[in-house]
Design a protein that fits this description.
- With 103 residues, the chain is of the alpha+beta class.
- Helices cover 38% and strands 36% of the residues.
- The strands form two sheets. The chain has a four-stranded antiparallel β-sheet with strand order 1-2-3-4, with helices on one face.
- The longest helix has 21 residues.
- The chain is elongated.
């Protein structure tokens, strides 16, 4: 018998995201994944706990991504974080070199 998945919109300090939750009778737990961010998988013993764990995992993931100077886009297409200054410098140098070659 297949798992019955439910999707929920959850709010985090970084924005709103969709999580998918299903009950696994073998593990006796609600399993959680984030469709847009496959690296995030967690669980809870109750549905409420699973949702809280999903929010917690999303917040930790976004914190790490932001600390690395990268961005995350939530379900409302809100951009969280910003590119590191080094990324802008590389872009500027590449753009300047391209403009010299094409001039």
């Amino acid at each position: 018998m297949g798992k019955k998945e439910h999707t929920y919109q959850v709010g985090t300090k970084h924005g709103r995201f969709t999580i998918t939750v299903w009950y696994d009778s073998r593990d006796k737990a609600y399993l959680v994944r984030v469709p847009k961010i496959p690296e995030i998988v967690t669980f809870g013993k109750t549905l409420a706990e699973a949702k809280r764990m999903g929010v917690d995992a999303l917040e930790l993931y976004c914190d790490c991504i932001i600390d690395e100077g990268k961005i995350v886009v939530d379900d409302a297409r809100k951009i969280i974080g910003q590119l590191a200054p080094m990324a802008f410098e590389r872009y500027s140098q590449t753009s300047a070199n391209f403009n010299k070659r094409t001039a």
